[in-house]
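Q: Entry one of two.
A:
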Amino acid sequence: MNKELRKSLIEKYLNAETDVAQERMLAEWFAVHGAGPEEESVARLILAEYPEAGYDEAEREFDSIVASRKRRVNVVRWAYGFAACAAVAVGIALFFQHRPTCDFNGQEIAQGIEKIMFLDMENVESVTARPKGNNVIITAIMKDGGKCSYLMSKDGGTSAVSITAMNN
């Protein structure tokens, strides 16, 4: 850009008579070539208004790619967050809607599992407990593949616990 055109654009800019394209052209000139002593204050002004003018095309493209990636990552994060919240809400609703009433707490169930394991410790591979109504079904899986099930219940409203073997 020659000095006369630049001088004319600076005068128009200071009188608020330039359009965006002319202002960008002026900002890009100052970003690449710098400003003379008489143009320095105008250059600072216009570069403050158009800071991206100092970027070359590759930098602009890079910034655009990074910005779009950040937007995409944020969209994915929001989607996962929403899905997780929805899953938790559905899980809580299902838990409270279909929650079986069991007379046993976790510690009592663990004690029942422990008792079953110690019956035949050498042959028991694993033990599971599943609440069923007011009772708990404890199933021992033996190393030979067999299963033994037991019904754990409380006797008549007391705190006494009984474990009864069941036929499989």
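Q: Entry two of two.
A:
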Amino acid sequence: MSDTAANLHRKIASAAELESVVRTMKAMAAASVTQYENAVRALDDYYRTVQLGLAACFQHNEPWDAAAPVPTSKTGGIIAITFGSDQGLVGPFNEILAEFVVATVENRPGKKTLWTVGERIQSRLADTHLDKGSSFNLPNAIGAITPLVGQILLGIEARHEAGDLREIHLFHNRPQSGGNYTPVSQRLLPLDNEWQRHLTTVTWPTGSWPEVLAGAAQTLPALVREYLFVTLFRACAESLASENASRLAAMQRAEKNIDELQENLKRTYHRLRQSSIDEELFDVVAGFEALSELK
């Protein structure tokens, strides 16, 4: 055999060390998945509340012009904000999302600019024909998402002031049952009549609509700001939940492969040792027979 017992022993020890690392990463990914999934569920309730507030304002025929804090230009470009990952070991997480982004925006008219969150998705989209714009660091905890959303909103406001903003689309992976995920997109801006008509279809949970006390001058702009914030926050949280679910699945596959490798190495090691023992016994028997013939 090409492997010696010492080499096989070292390989078995290395596989055990690697399995320990994989189990640690698996536990961390499982904990992170739970954390971000809980945040997504909490955000769903808050997002629904904001929607109901906006719908209540529009049901009272409040003037929309007073509520548009970030109007867009008809001649500006399209920004594609894409949430990916900073780290590897997530399977085809970034590859699938990058293909989805390119397929979605490449045929749309106007200049297309990428804003990326995460180094891996940034490098994955670097070879595309889309223009490269701002890049942001991916949050490593729930508490770090709020500062990120603030940076993105400031960037949007700066592009609006420069008169170079027509549409903004969000792209990210959304978690599905069984640890799966799927790439999705959502138009963040403009908040136009189409968006307003969609909100008017929201059903109020009780029999009568509430009264908007402060009117459009205060209530509506505040709700729109909350809508932009929670939409970006939820997209980031869903992306992080999907990323960690993908990493958990990758670690589970790696753990299974390591277990199979260890079993193969141990079988080979035991066969090698048994072969060595058989050879030693054969030598002893042969030597004994040779001595017996000399007597």
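A: Comment on entry two: The chain has one domain: 28-247. The domain at 28-247 is CATH 3.40.1380.10 (Pyruvate Kinase; Chain: A, domain 1).
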